[in-house]
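Help! Submission page says 'invalid entity' but I think these are all valid:
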Amino acid sequence: MATTDYTIPGEHDLETLDIHVNVGPQHPATHGVFRMVLTIDGEVVTDVDPVIGYMHRGNEKLPENCDYRQVIGYHDRTDYLAQFNTEHCFVEAVEKLTGIVPTERSQYVRVILAELNRITSHLMFVGAFSTDIGIFGTAFMYAFRDREIVQEFFEEITGERMMYNYFRPGGVAWDVPDNFRERCNQVLDHIKKGIDDLEGLIVDNEVVLARCRGLSRMSTDDAINWGLSGPLLRSTGLAFDLRKAEPYSIYDRFDFDIPTGIDGDIYDRVLIRLEEMKQSVRIVEQALAEMPGGPIMAEGLKRVLRVPEGEIYMRVEGPRGEYGVYIVATGADKPYRHKVRGASFSNLSALRAMSVGNYVSDVIIILGSIDIVLCEVDR
Amino acid sequence: MTTGQETAQEAPPPPEPGPLVKLLQELLPGVGFEIRETPLDETVTISRDNFAKVMETLKSHERLRFDYLRCLSGVDYLTELETVYHFYSYEHGHKLAVKVRCPYEDAHVPTVSHIWATANWHERETHEMYGIVFDGHPDLRPLLTEEGLGYYLLRKSHPLADIEEWQESYLSAIDEAKRQAAAAGGEAPPPMSKVAIAQAKAKVMKEARDKARSEGLSPEDEKAAVRAAIDKFNEDLASGQAGGAAAAPAPMSKVELAQAKAKVITKARSEARAKGMSTEDEKALVAEAIKKFSAEQEAGAAPATAAPKKEMSKVELAQAKAKVITKARSEARAQGMSTEDEKKFVAEALKKFSAEQGS
């Protein structure tokens, strides 16, 4: 549905007032505690003022008073849908600053878990997004059925359903269970089937096509200017993925593709996430095949981890885009400065640019397509 | 497998400029780049005077073309504040970190939000967390916290623990300062919110329309009348906030006087209590002190109002207190005290601090 052919009636024809509508903070369509003040002219949104901060818990200040290993738990609580990816970022940062080399086996475990986590995050997106556009039910249930299987697998490994706190500088907290390979293959089988199911439900769906095609088109230049990353950036046609562009960990050993969009519209953003799940499956399969035995934690680490003076901005490709952490270390056992750059933060800041000129109901979809995690936005 | 702690401590040689820094030096002659070695990125520190020029060049020069501002952070170095910009160039694939420092008293940095749109929110956040003002930013409202907080959460002077006490004294000090300012010069009316403006506008429109109808104007004339009313309203709004500011000559001395008096009373009372006087005697002592104070005022000597030495403001006091707490705590931790002992230690330090303040 084209939304740009709306014309404002002549200035003196009709005196109307702009109406301000609060959406949220307690509203299911805002995906958490997020409020936007819409200024609407009839059904058309003329201004959006996003109001964030409801989830601000001092996730940057608190780690400045914590031992380096204690900080890992705070990263689970930033992007709570991609915890392994966030932990990965932080432990990589500490390892790069200290010179600790993680063991081979633990690197493979990390990559497998991070990629599975990407899949659960995208499954969450597909489920929530399909609810946003009004096909509640089937897709949501299918997505959550598969997500639950992976979630159980994570629980078997880490003992936790959400706040895993499993990665450590130098490796992982403890070894994976003996039946890891077998269970992982089972999970992959489920996911592969699940992705096919979801594709059947989403890709040619009338509702999805009608509501998403051509909506909120973004050019690559605009996307870069607004600092968009992840699927939002790739939907504009730029094949940029930190796993390829600045390979961290052992991502350079795996063979996978970067899906890109053509139009930069919402439909592309959905398709890219579906495709990324398949690519993640590919990575996990390769990693499983190559995974060596051996220790899971580097030797010779002290109980108190002191990081020598220095600073680093470490970034990884999270499901939502570039997740970064900027650490200033002074040689103490605590970070001096601990900044979290959430992908959702920058992506959400472009909401106004994406939304103005569209209908109110479409703004809900646009917000959904950004796939925000408010804990990462507010920190 | 190193922990990096045995890295050489002898005189540090200046780090070698990387290819990117060499390019910068070539393209921006006359700009000083202080190089710092960091993993992943090449890092340079520039002075604030060159900042705007360097940033423009980073984005626009074809050999640099840093089109992606990936992260913007503030850092509090106790003596100075710093902002750090992490860049990436999609075209060339190179990455750079640029740092700029500003002193506490003059925490201003030019904005880059007109060069990279993504800087808008990052700068808003850095402003509210560190108090760095980004000159030229279109909208520096706080992003994550409420408006008018009055303090900067991520500065090192902001304590993490015992925050309630700190906050209370800090906020009451700020309130008091505001009251004084209001008493002194009359406060400018707060700017109207968008909603309030719309409501006021609606009222103006309705009034104009009703008036036109009661006068029996033609629909054409009615429209024109409403239009004129709206234009007038907009004009008023634009020129607004002119009134009020020029009002009221400063009755500052009165406020000061009242404060001085209050101080005298408090002092007399606490003295009386310290001596264990009866209520009656206490009252008498206080009354005497007030009488003495008034007499001094009338005589114009007023030693009480002219503060003997510049006393700490409440804000400074609260900050100093926070510092004492932090220091005591870290000392206690360094000595490996138990939690109980640590608490005691901190309490003692606080007591000592209060005693020092009292004397």
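Support: the input was valid. A stray whitespace character was the problem, and the output above is from the cleaned input. Chain A touches chain B through 59 residues (CB under 8 Å).
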